[in-house]
Amino acid sequence: MTKTATPEPLLSIRNLGVVYSTSQGPVHAVSNISFDVHANEVFGIAGESGCGKSTLIRSLLRLLPDNGRMDAGLCQYKGQDLTAMSDEAFRKNILWQEISLVPQSAMASFNPVHRVGDQIIESILAHRDISRAEARERSAGLFDVVGLQSDLMNSYPHEFSGGMRQRAMIAMSLSLDPGLIIMDEPTTGLDVLVQERILRRIREIRAEIKSSIILITHDIAVIAEMSDRIAIMYGGEVMEQATAVDMFENPHHPYTLGLKNAFPSIRDIGSELISIPGSPPTLVGPLTSCPFAPRCPFNLDTCHQANPESINIGTSHQVRCIRTADAKQFRKLAREKSTWRS
Amino acid sequence: MEILELDHLSRHFEIQPGFIDRVIRRHPMSYIKAVESLNVSIGNNEILGIAGESGCGKSTTCTMVSGLLEPTSGDIRYKGKSIIGLKGEELRQYRRSVQMIFQDPYESLNPRFRAADIVAEGPRALDLWDADEIDHRVIEILNAVGLPAHKYTERFPHELSGGERQRVGIASALVMEPEMIIADEPLSMLDVSIRAGILDLIKELQEERQFSSIYVSHDLSILGNVADRVLIMYLGQAMEIGPAKDVILNPRHPYTRALVGAVPIPDPRSRRAIPNIRGDISKPIDPPPGCRFAPRCPHADSSCQANFVELSTEDPNAHQAACHKLDIIADG
Description:
The complex is a heterodimer of chains A (342) and B (332).
Chain A: E1 11-22, E2 25-37, E3 42-46, H1 53-60, E4 68-71, E5 74-77, E6 80-81, H2 87-94, E7 99-102, H3 116-127, H4 132-145, H5 162-173, E8 180-184, H6 192-208, E9 212-217, H7 220-226, E10 229-234, E11 237-243, H8 244-249, H9 254-262, H10 301-305, E12 311-312, E13 318-319, H11 327-333
Parallel strand pairs in A: 3-9, 3-10, 7-8, 8-9
Antiparallel strand pairs in A: 1-2, 1-4, 1-5, 5-6, 10-11, 11-13, 12-13
Chain B: E1 2-15, H1 19-23, E2 30-43, E3 47-51, H2 58-65, E4 73-78, E5 81-82, H3 88-97, E6 98-101, H4 115-126, H5 131-144, H6 149-152, H7 162-174, E7 180-184, H8 192-209, E8 212-216, H9 220-226, E9 229-234, E10 237-243, H10 244-249, H11 254-261, H12 302-306, E11 320-321, H13 326-331
Parallel strand pairs in B: 3-8, 3-9, 6-7, 7-8
Antiparallel strand pairs in B: 1-2, 1-4, 4-5, 9-10, 10-11
Helix pairs in contact in B: 4-5, 4-7, 5-7, 7-8
C-alpha cells in the first residue's frame, strides 16, 4: 500500500533532539530524528522501552516535563513552523485541533467523575463555537464511528471495559477533525480479540477520514499490519526507516534484523527465537558512537568511534549504519543463533 | 505417570450485595465462577501452556495449584495424592516442590535485598540446608541462570535490568529444587529483544533439571514455542486442549479459531480473516449452565446453552475441543 509521496508532507521533522537534565548529567533521550508524515498515511514507530519513542511524541505535543528541552532543526506542520509558535498559540490552534493524541493508558485518561460523553462534548465546545446540542450530536456520531452505542455516552469511565475506553479515547481524538492523530501503544495491555477489533476499527476509520496516523508500539506484528511506512528506533535515534514491505523484506540495519529474529510469529511456531544479548544504552551524554554497536554482532572499530549518519539506500529507505553494503550477508548470518552470542 | 491432576476443579467467589440490597431487598448472593469443572493433567517433565483472555481463570487455576487458594469443589492431586487440606510438614514440602515465576520482575523482588539474599530466602525460610550449603547452592544457581555470581551476588534489584531481574526470579524458584514450576506470564514485562533469551533459559533448565511446568500466557505465538501442550480457557471453562502445534495450527473450537485468527502477523503482506465472533466478553457472574462462549458463538444453538462438554484426562495427548458443534464447524 505504498503511497506516492505528496510534494508537501503533512509533518516534517528534521534533526529533532530532546535532552533531559538529570542529577547524573544530561540525558539525550532523543537525537537526530528526521522524518516526514504524508497525508493519509499510517507512519509506524517501533522500538523497545527506553528507545525514546514516548519522549519523541511528548516533545511534538509540548508535553515534556520541566527538565526536558527540545531542539529541532525543523518542525513543520502543513507548512507552518511549529518551533516558532508560542505555547499558547500551539495549544489553541494545533493541539487537539490539528494534532490529537490517543494516550497509552485510556484507563487513566478520562476523568472518573464525569460522564464519558460529557468529556468529549466539553473538548469540542472548548474549541468550536457551536451549541451543546450540536456538540452532543457530533459526539454521538463519533461513538458510532468507533463502534460504541451512543447511549453509552451517559456512562462513567469505570462502567467501560478496557477496550471500550480505548475506543472512546479514539472517538475523542477524532472530535475536531485533526490532520494527524498520534496513537501511543493504542492496544497494549488489551486482550487479543479486543485488540483485533480496535485495529480493524482504526483501519476502517482511516478509510473514512482523511487524517494521518502516527502509530507507536513495541509490537512488531501490529506495526507490520497497520503501517504504510515504519521507523525503527533505538537509543534515541531512528536506526532504519522504510516502507513496511521494504522493512520486512529488505531490512538493512543489524538491530532490525535482531528484532525480527526475536519476535515470534503464530504462522511460524516452533521456529527458533533469538535474543539480542546486552541491554540498551543509558544515553547519558551525547552519542559519540553508534548506540547499537555494543550489542551488534557486526560492529567494527569505526562503529565505536563515530555515530554514523543516516544513509539513503533507495527512494524512501534510510539506514543509520556504516555497513549497509554487507546487508545481504548480514541477513543470512542474523538467522544463525551463533552470530548473536556475546 | 501424571505429576499433577486437576479433577473437576472449580472455584467460585461470592459477591456481597450492598447492605440495602441484602437486608431490605433481600437480593440473593451472586457468584463469580472463576474456574468451572476443569479437568487436566500434567505429565512428568512436560510444559503445559494455558492461554486465554483476562478473566478466563488462568491465574485462579495457578493460585489453587500453588496451594494459596482452596478450591470450591473438585480435587488437585499431586503425584496421586490430594493436596486439599494439607497441613504442617506435608504442606511445607508441597510448597517447596511447586514454585512460581512471577509476571513482574520489577515488583516481585524485595528492593532491600541483594540478589544472593533474594535467592537464598526460600531455602533459609524452610531451613533446607546449613548456611554454607545454601551459599554454595545460591552461587551455583546464579551461574546457571546466566548471572555470573562474582558479578551479581551483591547487586540490589535496582542495579539490574528487567531481564536480569527475571533471571533472579527464576533462580529463586529453582534453588528450591522444585518438581513443578508455575510461570505466570514471565515475559510480558520484558522487551522483545531479550524475551527469547529468558524463554531459552526456561527450556534449557527444564531439560537439565527435569521439572514440569504450567506456563500461562496470553501470547499464543510464545506458547507455540515453549509448550508441549496448550489448554485454552474462556470465562473459567476449558475450551480446547491438545499438543501445542495441533491447537494453534489446527484449532477446532470456535473460540480457539477466533483467538488464533486475531493474532497479528509480523508480515505487512499477510491478510487475516475477520474472526467469526460477536459481542464482548462478559464476566462469569452467575453464568447459565451451558457453554460460556455460546452467546458469542456463530454456531451455538439450544444444546450449547443447556450443557457444557467437559474435557477428559483419559488420554493426555489427545486433541479435544469442548464443543457440541464440531461436525458442523469442520464442514463449514
